[in-house]
Structures are given as C-alpha cells and as structure tokens.
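Complex 265.
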Amino acid sequence: MSLANVGYSSRLAWANPLLDRLEHQAAIVIFGEEPVEMGMAGLQDVLLQRLSDDPATAARFEAAFPDHDRPVTTLHVLQAIASFERSLVSFGSPYDRFVAGDGEALSDAQQRGHELFVSERLECFHCHGGPTFSDTLRHDGQLVSEFGFHVTALYAPEVLADAAHPGIAEITRREEDVGRFKAPTLRNIAVTAPYMHDGSLPTLEAVLHHYEHGGRAGEGHPARSEFVSGFILTDQERRDLLSFLDALTDPTFLTDPRYADPLGQ
Ligand code: HEC
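Predicted structure with heme C bound:
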C-alpha cells in the first residue's frame, strides 16, 4: 500500500494489529526470516560496513547523528528510514484545495463523487474517513490512536487452518478475524494499482464492482462488515466516484525531487 502520510498511520501492515512503529517495521523487513524480505538476518555487521564504506552515506550519518563516535549503527539506520518515511506527507491534492475553500478545485463530477463517497448508501467514509482516508489514524490530541480491521468479503471464508488470506487471524488466531484487513489510505490511489492486500483487483473499476456486489465473495459471508452490503450505481455515478478518487492525486507529492531516487540523479 501507499506510504503517503504513513507517519499518521497508527498500524502499519495490512494485517498486524501490533505493529505500530515505523522503526520496528523497518527492522522486520530488513532482518525478518518469515518471510525473508531484505535477507539481512545475522548480517548486521555486513550491512553497517557497507554503509560506512560509502563515503556519501557515512557523511550523511555523521551529519544526522553528530554526537556519536560511531554514527552508523543498526538503531540509527532504522531511525533514519523511519524519519524519511515520516517526511512522506501528501496533502496537496485538488480535494485538499477544495476543503481549504477553493470551490473551483473539484469539477462538478468530482463533487458529486465526493457526495457518494460520504453517503450512507455507499458507506466508504466509515472505513476510509478522516484526513488520510483511512480509519487507522494517529495524530496529536488523541487519547488513543484509532485503528480498524475489516472484512470486505474479498474472499469466501475458509477454515482458519486452511486460510490463504488470514488477515489479522494470523496474529489473533481467532476464526472471526479471518480476512480482516486494514483499510488503507486512498490518497494517490489512482496511481497505485493493483489494489487490495494481494493486488488481486487490477483497476479502481474492479474495486468499485467488488463493493457494488457487497464484496467479491458477496452475500453469505458471515463476518462481512455491515458497511459492505452492496449498492447499485448508474454508469454516471460510477464515473463520478472514479473522478472523485482521481481528485486525491497530489502532483506536488508525486513529483517532489526529494523523493526521487538519490542515486539515479
Ligand atoms: C468496512 C470497511 C470498508 C468500507 C465500507 C470500504 N472499504 Fe475500501 N477497503 C477496506 C479494506 C479493509 C481494504 C483492504 C482489503 C484487502 O486488502 O483485502 C480496502 C481497500 C480499498 C481499496 C484498495 C486500496 C489499496 O491500496 O489497494 C480501495 C480503492 C477502496 N477500498 C475504496 C473503497 C470505496 C470507494 C468504498 C465505498 C464504495 C470503500 N472502499 C468502502 C475497508 C473498507
């Protein structure tokens, strides 16, 4: 899923209610063995040596951690990655200009699409609500961070032991949690295909069809969220909703040179 505004996300993975710090998430990816992702388990010294041997990287670590004799440490690597991720802030879309008072920022179709998005008929906003379009949100002033994991009936329920898409049941071991996933942010969603935790829906049209049918696995899913009950859209309404989702694309964020490949310049 997109990393836009990930610093405001109170839970980081599709299906792990415990993982709430970017530093921990980075460690899992780099050093984890189930599954192996970056494959650095047991190779911390190699990793730190490689970073120290690169003069440009070593100089940046010295600048970032000036009070340390040995600035390149595993902890600092994780902190550096997490700090970079917290800088990935995207609030410059036409939708943001619209809510800030520029009535021209959204087309009529996009405004109609927004009305549909926040309607009780379509229910999208219950799970994709708030400034990040996700109900998994952390911000100043909260007593406790919000998070939600939901069954959208993307797959038919299966016995826990056989489930190919366990959702948070992988952690909780509760049968009713099979297929329960995080509602990801919808910011810049038009440019982050394919969709869902396994990329099984290729386009936003396919995502809308999934919700129109009350989930791809549809009726009869016992754990399906009450907010995924299906609805009927006219072709015009479907186009309006898609053009509203387009209004969440933030060109400033997508073309910010600070996020370009630093080695590719
Ligand atoms: C009950 C909560 C809930 C409701 C209601 C809901 N969603 Fe979702 N949405 C989710 C969850 C959970 C996922 C991830 C599911 C998965 O990966 O299996 C998701 C995924 C998505 C994705 C794919 C995101 C990505 O990065 O892959 C899009 C797009 C989306 N929803 C749009 C909508 C729209 C539009 C509506 C209203 C018609 C809607 N959602 C209603 C919970 C919800």
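The CA atoms of residues 201 and 265 lie 33 Å apart.
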